Amino acid sequence: MTRDDILDAAAQVFRQKGFHGASMSDIAEALNVQKASLYHHVASKQEILLAVLERALSMLTDHIASIASQSIPADEKLRLMIRGYLGVLADHADLTSVLLFEHRSLDKKSHTRHVPQRDKFEGLWRDVLNEGVSSNVFELKDIGLTARALMGTLNWTLTWYRPEGDKSIEQIADDYSDFVLKGMLK
User: What is the domain partition of the chain in residue ranges?
Assistant: First the structure.
């Protein structure tokens, strides 16, 4: 049993039961080990939650940073970021669901440790929006509000998206990009 095995199992259990509804016994059962064996590798459920969040956020940050650093216009970059972000959310639904919906379960010390990494990720989006404003591609009154609105829309997709649905995650991402970049006005 590796640390990755523990985090994968925990992400699945936390997604199904929620952090507070899940127990160390549930995680051990998902791993097919005794709870005592699990405690040999981790000290607490809180430690596991923080590790799951860090893993998810690191994966997302690395992926989005690789897109954000490309030398292409801001609107093209934003389109690729939306597609990339939704793709990772869908491909790693257990892990990213925990990131999006269970971060509130962090204790104060863990939350303090988590926030700078979260802010770094959100900063990638604000930087691209700022880049678009600076290059006269975007006209935005409040970049922070725009970034939060965009993140809210993208994040919420995880609650209703189904791989077997009418649209692929790529089609949804493209529709979102058109909406964000072109708006609703005729």
Answer: 46-182
CATH code that applies to domain 46-182: 1.10.357.10
Q: CA 88 → CA 29, 56, 67, 155, 170, distances in Å?
A: 27, 10, 13, 11, 11
The pLDDT, as a whole number, for residue 71 is: 97
Asked whether the beta carbons of 52 and 99 are under 8 A apart, the reply is: yes
Helix segments in the chain, DSSP class H: 3-17, 24-31, 35-41, 45-68, 74-91, 93-102, 108-134, 143-160, 169-182
pTM passes above 0.85 = yes
Reading the block at residue 140, the tokens are 């935005």
Are the C-beta atoms of residues 161 and 172 closer than 8 Å to each other? yes
